[in-house]
Amino acid sequence: MSASVDRLVAVVEALRDHCPWTAALTHADLAEYLVEEAYEAVAEIESRDAAAWADVPARRADGAYPALAAELGDVLFQVVLHAAVSRAPGAPAETAGFRVDDAADALTAKM
């Protein structure tokens, strides 16, 4: 993974290990947040028509692409958090039910 994603995974794992609220989360608890974040990303995409998105310099300048990146980052956070939830708080990473890399590998295999 990239250094940025590695840092995100480390931060989320630290939250899982040291924050009681995060440590108590289950996949079921997170389901509504995953849907909510996906809807927010869709809303950002639908805030402009397809032709407007094609003008990359203009969308960078008006903040649309940074806003979309932020919304998609929230979706990515959900994936990373689900991976963290698949591991017992404080347990070694190799005991996780799945890692972010496993999700990426599963997606790549589908393609």
Describe the protein's architecture and organization.
The protein is 76% helix and 0% strand. With 111 residues, it is mainly alpha-helical. The protein has one domain (3-110): Orthogonal Bundle (Helix Hairpins), CATH 1.10.287. The protein starts with a helix and ends with a helix. The model has no long low-confidence stretch (mean pLDDT 92).
In short:
This protein is mainly α and 111 residues long. It has helices spanning 3-18, 20-23, 27-46, 50-54, 56-61, 64-85, 100-110.
Give keywords:
111 residues; mainly alpha; Helix Hairpins; elongated
How are the SSEs placed, and which strands pair?
Layout: H1 3-18, H2 20-23, H3 27-46, H4 50-54, H5 56-61, H6 64-85, H7 100-110
Helix pairs in contact: 1-6, 3-6
Task: Tell me what the CATH architecture is.
Answer: Orthogonal Bundle
Element-by-element helix/strand order = HHHHHHH
- Percent helix, as a range, is over 70%
**Averaged pLDDT:** 92
Beta-strand residue percentage: under 5%
CATH topology: Helix Hairpins
Number of helices: 7
CATH C-level class is Mainly Alpha
The secondary structure category is mainly alpha
Low-confidence stretches: none
Radius of gyration: 16 Å
- How many distinct beta strands? 0
Number of domains: 1
How far apart the termini lie comes to: 18 Å
**CATH homology superfamily name:** MazG-like
Dominant shape:
elongated
